[in-house]
Amino acid sequence: MTRKYVALPGGLFEGRTAIVTGASRGVGRATALRLAEGGANVVVNYLSREERAAEVADLCKRKGVEAIAVQADVSEFAGARKLTEAAIEKFGRIDMLVLNAGIWEGAPIEEMSEETWNKVINTNLKSAWAMTKCAVPALRKQEDAAVVLVSSTAGQRGEANYTNYAASKGGQISFTKGLATELAPRIRVNCVAPGWIETAMVRPAFKDESYKRTVIESIPLNRIALTDDVALSICFLLSGWSQHITGEVLNINGGAVLCG
Questions:
Q1: Which residues are catalytic?
Q2: Dist CA 231 CA 197 (whole Å)
Q3: CATH 3.10.20.880: does it fit domain 17-252?
Q4: Which long-range contacts (CB under 8 A, 24 or more apart) does 114-121 make?
Q5: What is the pTM of this model?
Q6: For a surface tag, which of 87, 101, 146, 239 has the fewest beta carbons within 10 Å of its beta carbon?
């Protein structure tokens, strides 16, 4: 299957401001660039990759919008508050929140340390709580506010040797559904659940070419998703195109996992 590039209308997010956590690389980076293409001002959050985050912000600006890079550890409430305050100080508003910050670290359950468990749960799930809690007062002020969480197929079917990751992603799905009803009708809340994505985080798993071929063969659309595939789906859920959708889990896995 040949992938076609789909351009977003320049006015899709005009006048709106988005925060994207974990935006220095991968899905976060691709989403920040697509939001900028659609006319949104973007707050590029990063933990430690300052140069990469600055580059993403610069690329957003080249698309004719404003963008800033903000260092903050959003797995801690103080970091989430810092990021939210920086967005409001710069742009005076928050319309869209993309909760993308995440890590993929695991071990067999009898070998998993408390540190590994806590690190994954805090980065992936606690950060979603912290950022939403901080941003909701600003989001409530907007007419068409929206939140999108980046979950995973692991949150739907589990993942052996990564039970902490699966638990965090499953928690994000339940968090999405709870928030969708709690924050309606003012704020829509949805999540995406990608399968395998071509990112630096999962690339080590594909060093074995035979394993990579096995993965591709298990996907009906016959390719691994690109970060832009996920970014486009996130933009759909943030836009007016999905104005009557909330509490939804949008699967992006090429047909590999068919969840209702």
A1: 165
A2: 11
A3: no
A4: 116/164, 117/164, 120/164, 120/165, 120/168, 121/164, 121/167, 121/168, 121/171
A5: 0.94
A6: 239
